[in-house]
């Protein structure tokens, strides 16, 4: 039985095969002279695996594994679409078995081995990428006016902190209550341009910045609880307190504390404002 590989060939035989195949090959395009140019014209990278070994069967189950890589910047997505794509691809759920994302290189990697052949897995990954891209560009009705506790990122213009600050200053003007109990638009613009308010706004953004899926992984897998042999129900003790990512960092807390004191005129960094 002939072994289905090139191990039985000598270097002269291999050279003869290469010379016979050379006439069917074309030169490398002269314009593709750098990795950046190649990625610009061919943004999708597909990795296949092939294994050569001495056996009576040429099939190897490991060769079905296919990996598709693409930089999300090449998909021309806005912030809403990119957030939605990341939550669909690498969010909590079974998506982690297929997709992974590198926040440093902006590369989304899809891997599949569920189909029998590598060609089928390649078609499946192209289909998954197409569906993710099309669905992420859609804006559903429930995504427009979602409440603050369902926000995917901090929005100062719609935040409760901004509303309370404007209401607080609209009720009192140098100790006297305003008749209309509302601030004019030019007063609100003047208020938000004050250094104390700007410092307070930036401090809030720094606290919530790492809670944005565009800035880091929000679904870090926690260690599995210990398994007990005899009893299935054990008393709950020492449950770890999980905070908002970045909210418990000392630097962010100090910036927020300083900005709050300056906002009410209790600090020395910024002058108290009057409306």
Strand order of the largest sheet: 1-2-4-3
Strand content: 5-15%
Instruction: Calculate the terminal CA-CA distance, rounded to whole Å.
Output: 93 Å
Mean pLDDT: 80
The global form is elongated
State the secondary-structure class: alpha+beta
Major sheet summary line:
4 strands, antiparallel
CATH class of the largest domain: Alpha Beta
**What's the total helix number?**
8
* Order of helix and strand elements from N to C terminus: HHEEHEEHHHHH
* CATH T-level fold name of the largest domain: Double Stranded RNA Binding Domain
Radius of gyration: 29 Å
Unreliable stretches: 176-181
Total DSSP E strands: 4
Which range best describes the helical content: under 10%, 10-25%, 25-40%, 40-55%, 55-70% or over 70%? 25-40%
Describe the structure using short key phrases.
elongated; 275 residues; 8 helices; alpha+beta
What is the strand and helix layout of this fold?
Elements: H1 11-22, H2 35-41, E1 45-48, E2 66-71, H3 79-90, E3 99-102, E4 107-112, H4 118-136, H5 160-171, H6 185-192, H7 195-208, H8 250-263
Antiparallel strand pairs: 1-2, 2-4, 3-4
Helix pairs in contact: 3-4, 7-8
Report on the architecture of this protein:
One of its GO terms (molecular function) is structural constituent of ribosome. One of its GO terms (cellular component) is mitochondrial small ribosomal subunit. By secondary structure, the chain is an alpha+beta fold. The chain has two domains: 27-141, 2-Layer Sandwich (Double Stranded RNA Binding Domain); 148-219 and 242-263, no CATH class. It contains eight helices and four strands, in the order ααββαββααααα. A four-stranded antiparallel β-sheet has the order 1-2-4-3. Helix 3 (79-90) crosses helix 4 (118-136) and helix 7 (195-208) runs antiparallel to helix 8 (250-263). The radius of gyration is 29 Å and the shape is elongated. Residues 176-181 have low confidence and may be disordered.
